[in-house]
Amino acid sequence: MTEEWLYQVRIRVSRNLGDAIRSKKLTGTCKKIHTISLKHGTKPVCTFDAFSQYCKEAERNGIEKYPLYSWTKSVIETPEKKEKHIKSFAFYKETEQVYPKELASNLFNDLLPLYENKLIENLSLIDNNPKNNPQPPKIVDKSARLKN
Q1: CA distances from 54 to 2, 39, 58, 87 (A)
Q2: CA angle 115–54–135, rounded 5-degree value
Q3: pLDDT tens-place values along the chain, 148 residues long
Q4: CA distance 93 to 7
Q5: How many angstroms separate the CA atoms of 93 and 143, rounded?
Q6: pTM to 2 decimals?
Q7: Taking a C-beta distance cutoff of 8 angstroms, is the pair 89, 123 a contact?
Q8: What is d(CA 18, CA 58) in angstroms, rounded to the nearest whole number?
Q9: d(CA 136, CA 141)
Q10: H or E segment and range at residue 64
Q11: Are strands 42-46 and 7-12 parallel, antiparallel or unpaired?
Q12: d(C-alpha 32, C-alpha 38), whole Å
């Protein structure tokens, strides 16, 4: 039996376009991205914004319950990493970050002309197979350490 992987579409854009998408200024390329996204029932979510929301939630609920908090917090506080992630968007289907291949492929194919015409900097279709993707940093369980 083969495992059915789920997929996600991601784009990287210029800083100006990223700012337009984040503020929902529906003109030019931003409007095209929005229209394509709506067609597939998805929405572009800024990676930086998603990381920031994760950290805020962790701080409200107790960071010990959020294993990636320290790593994520360092990403959003490092200027170079912030600049990278503020231009990066993943398409979510409602609240789901990954979805069936058919949806992802159709969304990817509709966004492809924007990439081919250099209106977006990068377009990628990824699956959730751990063998194909970098894994989150390993979390050290401090309570499991031996005491000297």
Answers
A1: 33, 27, 6, 18
A2: 65
A3: 456 899 999 999 999 999 999 999 999 999 999 999 999 999 999 999 999 999 999 999 999 999 999 999 999 999 999 999 999 999 999 999 999 999 999 999 999 999 999 999 999 999 988 787 665 555 544 444 444 3
A4: 11
A5: 37
A6: 0.85
A7: no
A8: 25
A9: 15
A10: none
A11: unpaired
A12: 10
Give the total residue count for the chain.
Answer: 148
Provide the token pair at 8: 């996600």
CA distance 65 to 1: 35
Alpha carbon distance 146, 64 (integer Å): 20
Structure tokens at 44: 């572009």
Per the listing, tokens 């579409």 go with: 9
Instruction: Transcribe 86-122 into DSSP letters.
Output: TTEEEEEETTBS-B-HHHHHHHHHHHHHHHHTTSSSE
Contact indicator for 51, 85 with CB cutoff of 8 Å = yes
The tokens of 38 are what?
A: 């709506």
What count of other Cβ atoms lies within 10 Å of the Cβ of residue 65?
9
Give 26-44 as a 3 state SS string.
CCHHHHHHHHHHHHCCEEE
